[in-house]
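INFO  loader      accepted 1 record
INFO  loader      residues=224
INFO  predictor   begin
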Amino acid sequence: MMSIRLLTLAGLMSALGFGSSTAQSHPGPNVPEGEFSPVAEAAFSDLTEGVFEGQFDYELLSTAVDNGDVRGAWYIVDLLRFVQEGQPRVALEEAFARSTGVQTPEDASAWLWGTNRMLSWGIPAWDGYRDLKRQLFVGVDARWAPFFDQDHGVDWRILTWGGVQPDDRPFGDNGPCHCIPSLDNPGTTSADGGDWYDDDKIVFGLLVNDEAIAFPKNQMEEHE
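INFO  predictor   done
INFO  writer      dumping tokens
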């Protein structure tokens, strides 16, 4: 079973401490009205292409934030999720500060802290944000494409990488991996025989072709 770890909605908001007093401690920047700058959007797109070719174009990053539109900081924190070292990371942190007027604390995770700030301020995305984010995520792993091919009613601001790789091991291979192991062909029992799991415990239910199965939460915390 191949899985791709994405973290979204309530899970991300909880992980970020969204709604905490810390998240509310800075006043939000002003959000411009109207469409997002096509020049800035094109600069972000070209910058992303360069990242995948092993080149980070600092001039393109500067062009992308020249318009002063704080909405562009959403894509900066997306880039920070994957660009976490060296001068490119420093440049992205500086671009975030330039866009928002707020500097990332030295001891903070730039991606985590920046995302938390943007959520707490309620900064909206723009109409082309999903396509740009798709370019980034699919460039990292093409198997993310189905998540972006339709709108699905998702708030794309709060969808991010969960931090682990897909489980690419052959079916049945239980060797080590930098992944959350998939649950391959698990043993099952009938509901009548499931008295080993207390009735008040949480399960995740799946219904396919009128056949139902429940996966215990304690097992699914270790598998996908």
